[in-house]
Amino acid sequence: MKKYSVFAIAREAMRGHKGWEEQWSSPEPKKEYDVIIVGAGGHGLATAYYLATVHGITNVAVLEKGWLGGGNTGRNTTIIRSNYLYDESAGIYDHALKLWDGLSQELNYNVMYSARGVMMLAHNVHDIQVLKRHVHANRLNGIDNEWLTPEQAKEFCPPLNTSKDARYPVVGAALQRRGGTARHDAVAWGYARGASARGVHIIQNCEVTGVKRAANGAVMGVDTTRGFIGAKKVGVVAAGHSSVIMNMAGVRMPLESYPLQALVSEPIKPVVPCVVMSNTVHAYISQSDKGELVIGAGTDQYVSYSQTGGLHILQHTLDAICEMFPIFTRMKMLRSWGGIVDVTPDRSPILAKTPVPGLYVNCGWGTGGFKATPGSGHVFAHTIAKDDPHPINAPFTIERFRTGRLIDEAAAAAVAH
Amino acid sequence: MLLIRCPYCEEERPELEFRNAGEAHIARSANISGESDDDFEKFFFIRSNPKGIIYERWRHMHGCARFFNAVRDTVTDKFVMTYKAGEPKPSKLPGVAK
User: Fold this and answer.
1) One Pfam match, by short name (chain B) (predicted)?
2) For position A286, which CATH number holds?
3) Quick check: A124 and A280 in contact, CB under 8 A?
4) Domain end among A343, A368, A395
């Protein structure tokens, strides 16, 4: 792997950019690997990357039914934050946030992590109570989060409508300054390049159609559209399709898959300096470096794999955005799309061993997995390499739905569901 | 937006009138406190989440307010049929192979 640097740019500029190499190779699948990761999204590629860099396991294949980063990695609204309520969640999301800081240097790939601040609006007394509780809980866990008055919120985000007669009056806000955004595609590409350089095979257009188990129940490998590929360890990181893959191994999951939509506007000059979220009216917004407003909507109410959702969901979100930012009422929206998110009953992820020996699962990130990408990959690689969870993901078992030891962010994740 | 046929009103109405109420044909035990942890997990948390035909409950919230069941393809979001609560799970589906 050739290092990217200002000197590389200068060198290539001198010779007509003929020396850039492919960022990752596309090898033919081998018959057998030490580890197979199902799903080449951010979480899967990060897992492969940390298996190689932290644990020295490089005989790894990442299988992807479509193209790399073409699922929810390329469909999310790129918000990064760690202001979750419970200790377990704070642990895993802040682990990720610490890795975001410095990830571009580590990967030698500009993931454009921008700690521009995530501001969550309060519109009523209940919001104030909930968000202040979050502020206190976060600070006890060593996570930055601060309370802003409406005036401070307006100062932090000038286009915000904080007038007293607003449809959704702003009565305060919680601000996590370390929160922000990153370039989602670059995260997948950077991890893919780093993993591929260390010998990991990234195999696209290779759909898993079955999971083979030995007589003793242990995993032997996976059937794919490109034939059987053997491995004693298989990690399923398939987002909305996780329960489909797990069913192939005979494991029924506490998951439901819903469409989640987002949309972007035409590009404009910089106007939104941070991420603004409103959970009560369910809208969130930031501005990409290209100038597009990136707007996230809610999930549809029914199980679906259609990667599309109802127009009324988008309309509801845009109604809220236009009330909070009257300045945007005449803007044109360019594109909208849907992704399929796998939601657990307690809205916390599952990163764990499974009842099947050699089968591991990283799923259930629901509507907010992107922010966790580096941390999720890091601890999941540990779980696979050691056949034992990292202390950070140890609470995120499948068994918690039997024991009742839930991590109940459902009402606490600070987003509406 | 989905168009959903309420089997009680016998009319196709827009999705906004309805609330999805999750997977259908999951029977609640008559003796819920006597359930083992395993059985309670299956009843309460585990879902089939199929890619394809799903049996699900809907409620005509802003209409007759009654619960009913529906069969829908989760890939196309097209409804195969709807039927009243309490009716058995249909074994043959119109227009669906197998």
Assistant:
1) SoxD
2) 3.30.9.10
3) yes
4) A343
Looking at the fold, whether A154 and A275 belong to one and the same domain comes out as yes
- Structural contact between residues A356 and A212, judged by C-beta atoms closer than 8 angstroms: no
Which of A65, A52, A93, A124 minimizes the C-alpha distance to A349?
A: A93
Residue A9 counted as domain residue: no
Whole-complex ipTM: 0.95
The rounded mean pLDDT for chain A is 95
Contact B45 A256 (CB under 8 A): no
Mean pLDDT within A183-195: 97
Residue A302 sits at the chain B interface (C-beta within 8 Å): yes
Domain B3-84's class? alpha beta
The 10s digit of each residue's pLDDT in B47-80 is: 999 999 999 999 999 999 999 999 999 999 999 9
Q: How many domains are there within chain A?
A: 2
Contact B85, B66 (CB under 8 A): yes
Is a pLDDT exceeding 70 seen at residue A413? no
Output the pTM of the full model: 0.95
Q: Are residues A238 and A261 in the same domain?
A: no
Domain carrying residue A311: 118-177+257-343
Q: How far is CA A317 from the centre of its chain?
A: 21
Which of A254, A306, A312 minimises the CB distance to B75? A306
Q: Residue A99: give its domain's CATH number.
A: 3.50.50.60
Element (H, E) at A45: helix A42-53
Confidence check: pLDDT of A416 > 90: no
Contacts of A253 in chain B (CB under 8 A): 46-47, 49
**Contact yes or no for A303 and B45 at CB 8 A:** no
